Task: structure prediction
Amino acid sequence: MADYLLLLLGMGLATYVPRWLPLHYLSRRSLPEWFIQWLDLIPAAILSALLLPALILDGDPKHLDLLRPELWVALPTFAFAWWTRSLGGTVVVGMLLFWLAGKVDTQWFAWMG
Amino acid sequence: MTLPSSAARSTILKEGLNAGWPICLGYLPIGMAFGVLAQKAGLTPLQIGLMSIMVFAGSAQFIAVSMLAGGASAPAIIATTFVVNLRHVLMSSALAVYLRAAHRGLLALYAYGVTDESFAVNLPRFNARNWSLSRALVVNHAANLTWFISTVAGGIGGRFIPEGALGIDYALIAMFICLLIYQIRKLIHLLTAAIAGLTAVGLALMIPGNTYIVIASIAAATVGVIIQRKVMRSNPNNG
Result:
């Protein structure tokens, strides 16, 4: 538990400092323009770097697999997120479709086998 | 600054909750999904609750739990948390513009609750000049309370939910999909996302571990800025 609290303290600081420093100091000065542009692109870059490997890579060591339900369920989930802009709705729809895909998948393979 | 009367206080509370309830609604399924995954990774409801209070960062918490389950070291988890949450620098910078006269202590409290969701709710209202720090604090803390309760509830209920039930393993991916959609505001964001995703896949195939996330993100954002500045220089009217 002591190790865990230390981990949380580190994670807490790593989260809090980027949230607090700009609010504290930026009421007085501003960041260079290129850095603001860079920060503006970072979220899209991180989310995509997290997402695409999770959708199309499988196993350890990792290999390409375009037939994963993760990928096919992502397409309607993307469309839903794009049209509704609803975070909670997207999570619920994504989970539901993935659960259904799992059911269909098992039946499909039982039928083929 | 005078203390608001109780009538004014209830107005502040009402307006804050009016603006913040969609966040709370969205946090319920995500928080419970997080609690279930954390429970499966071996965390107790107490540990889950502590993380939700001390860290309060949805995507970073999901990543931390998957890294814990994979046996990652504490420094690796903290470094990843830092990189994943660097995006809040931009959000806090944008918010700072509207909070120039604010009390430093209240700002320190407000900083605690700056998330993708509270930012998306508070910034347009500050921008329209009909919002105050106290209303924004209500939004942030209502969201934090909901997050705490739903993650702990998921942690307690998690043991009753069988493996793979209700597509719970897809909660994180679905959340990332929606957050990515929020971030695609111009062509340059789409281009950067495409570069980051493809670079990440290429690197993940070549090097073991999770370092590919940081390398690919930094590389893609840097290439994105270079492209953006080249385009702006050759066509200054089309920012």
Chain B touches chain A through 100 residues (CB under 8 Å). The longest helix of chain B spans residues 6-40. Chain B has a mean pLDDT of 87. Chain B has eleven helices and no strands.
